[in-house]
Amino acid sequence: MTRRHGDIHPTRSTYEYYSRRISYDAVAFPLLAAACMPETSPSRPEPVQRISISLPVPLYKQFEEMMDERGFTNRSQAISEMMQQQISDYYSLKGDHLMAGTITLLYDHKKPGLKQQLSEIQYTHITEVISSLQVLLENSHTMEVLLVQGRAKTLRRIASELLACKGVLSGRFNLSRTILPPIQSPEVESEAA
């Protein structure tokens, strides 16, 4: 049997056959070469799954407007971010997943005993409170941002304890499914020595 240029090899998949030929066929058949390449990019090492959605026209127009205002470069990026947020919210409500996040507090630092009370709560939960940043603001106010990691229900309880302190003016609690890498403990360091 005589093969012509472009015939599919009978024992290989189309992708396997053409992926081997891409090095020299890409010049002659650029669209075919692009069509046979897997969906990956240097900025996105994970494989991607294409989906299709249908939206009511008013919702679509609002979505496009939001994308423009927020500076998204494409719809996939915007939808991916919204899905990540919804999934994080879902796991946050379930309460048993390991999550990382922030607790942001705005408080009056002149309130007697408040800083001590906030510190004691943080120290009580030292395994969940990773770090804390305090910024002095105008009018005797302080903004404190705590980086936390742990089970969602535990983190929610810590946030509630902190927000309930008299003198805390406002606060915000945000969680993410993406967690911090393992942090060394004294036991790990002593084993390495």
Description of the molecule:
- A hairpin with a 4-residue loop joins strand 2 (129-136) and strand 3.
- 43% of the residues lie in helices and 20% in strands.
- Among the domains are: 8-38, no CATH class; 93-176, ACT-like. Chain A, domain 2 (Alpha-Beta Plaits), CATH 3.30.70.
- By secondary structure, it is α+β, with helices and mostly antiparallel strands.
- It has a 4-stranded antiparallel β-sheet.
- It has helices at 14-25, 30-36, 57-70, 75-94, 114-124, 152-163, 186-192; strands spanning 98-108, 129-136, 141-151, 168-176.
- It is globular.
- Helix 1 packs across helix 2 (30-36).
- The model is unreliable at 1-41 (pLDDT under 50).
- The chain has 7 helices and 4 strands, in the order ααααβαββαβα.
**Inertia-based shape:** globular
Our Rg estimate from Cα atoms comes to 26 Å
> What name is given to the CATH topology of the domain at 93-176?
Alpha-Beta Plaits
Determine and state the CATH class of the domain at 93-176. Answer: Alpha Beta
Strand order of the largest sheet: 2-3-1-4
Main sheet attributes: strand count, strand direction, barrel closure:
4 strands, antiparallel
* Beta-strand proportion: 15-25%
Provide the low-confidence segments as ranges: 1-41
Protein name: Putative nickel-responsive regulator
GO molecular function: DNA binding; DNA-binding transcription factor activity; nickel cation binding
Family: Belongs to the transcriptional regulatory CopG/NikR family.
Pfam families: NikR_C
How would the blueprint of this fold be written?
Elements: H1 14-25, H2 30-36, H3 57-70, H4 75-94, E1 98-108, H5 114-124, E2 129-136, E3 141-151, H6 152-163, E4 168-176, H7 186-192
Antiparallel strand pairs: 1-3, 1-4, 2-3
